[in-house]
Amino acid sequence: MARQLIECVPNFSEGRDLGIIQQITNQIESVENVKLLDVDPGKATNRTVVTFVGEPAAVIQAAFLAIKKASELIDMSKHSGEHPRMGATDVCPLIPIANISMEEVADYAHQLGKKVGEELGLPIYMYEAAATKPEWSNLAVIRAGEYEALPDKLTKPEWKPDYGKAVFNARAGATVIGARDFLIAYNVNLNTTSVRRANSVAFDVREKGRLKREGDSITGKVMLDENGNELRNLGMCKSVKGIAWFIEEYGIAQISMNLTNINTTPLHMAFEACCTSSQNRGLRVTGSELVGMVPLKVLTEAGKYFLKKQKRSTGVDEKELIKIAVRSLGLDELAPFDPQQKVIEYQLNSLDGGNLIGMTLTDFADETASESPAPGGGSISAYVAALGASLATMVANLSAHKRGWDERWEEFSDWAAKGQELKDSLMLLVDEDTNAFNKIMDAFRLPKSSEQEKEIRKEAIQDATRYAIDVPLKVMEISLSSFELIKAMAEVGNPNSVTDAGVGALCARAGVIGAYLNVKINAQDLKDEQYVEEVLAKGASMVEEANMLEKEVLDIVESKIKS
Q: What is the value of pTM for the model shown?
């Protein structure tokens, strides 16, 4: 039930009239559950790059409104600028950020392309992961000839757009929509002022490497293949572009990189490649710098990588992983590094409003004790179960670091990582249970004047009720699955913490039974009798299993205390 997030980076062919840009971005900000992150106008290019992020449906709506407004305000027949362009909205890529695959994002890109094509009549071409032809995966191929070539191209069958009309729109031109990976702008700092030496490192690291030369590697004649093409020694990192420059402000040379596919070459691997090349050339990496924002996973994966190098448990919380990443990558060498400003998901916290898991313990208890019916037993059940998983995770981490158990660090690290996943999933359900209750209340508030409105309201209530059953059922399933970890830690974990595993079992059982009470009371209002029968039977079976597993864990705990 983790929230899916995608980023959208439309490029508009206007970089000088701030009033027009403002009207376009106002459309984006008018959509709920979307956050505008950046607006970057360029006078020379006469182009503005806008970045916003949110849940898929909201992002599609915001992108459509922005494209529509741009088509109304920007006249391409009068446009000039240094950057290649073919439309008022020139290109509009969608980018997976969290809990969503590239394939899903490509589907959303096609939804957007279809909507723009049908409702605005603009010629739409799909590119990168959403391309309908192999050659159209390359934006440069689609944009060849730019706006000026469109009247001729649109008359040719091979240039029939994916969506919209094959008719030249003199005012708005054509738009390219697609799905691509997240691009990271990343600089690595060296202990040198020499751009030439820094470039040697950049050429070692970047994918295209350096030209092959005869004799001297700098002045020698460039080597060619039988077709007259230049030969190259490829670099260490695929999907990485790089060059060096001197930063006068800091008095150092940097390797400036674009990481175009962070699944192929993650940030930490590009950093490690720079370290290896620098050391081989008598230089040293002193730190690094992120330009712009990154998805959370970029830093958490880096944190896990560096912990594994130390043979330390990776099953630590998110904040600790980020702290390890920042220290290991030297991201705070040139300026303080604030994850709240640099991590996209953290920038979106304002969209969530007053969530429960962001509260202090005291505030959460006060909110629960207030006259409001939510949070209630369902949220508390999820929270108690999360505490149970957290206790077992603590035992795993203590075991991974126990003196004399060094050879077992990876075994316990794996358990701790699993525990973190269980804990995080249950914490999300703390808020989701309250959201489910609110959905029911919203459904009851729907109008019911006409027969049609009554039917819509009735159906909405049933849908919300079913969701209010599914959420605590999920709490039950995850709480029950946490017993595997809890029991393992009672059996083989640090014996000094065996009682913590026992308390974890008590919490997990409370989570299962507490959530089942919510399932049962909400099931009373659902009309789907077969579904209710199946859910109640499944829930009763899980309660029985939780009782059994709790007893098994407590028996293990008691036997170890007595011994």
A: 0.77
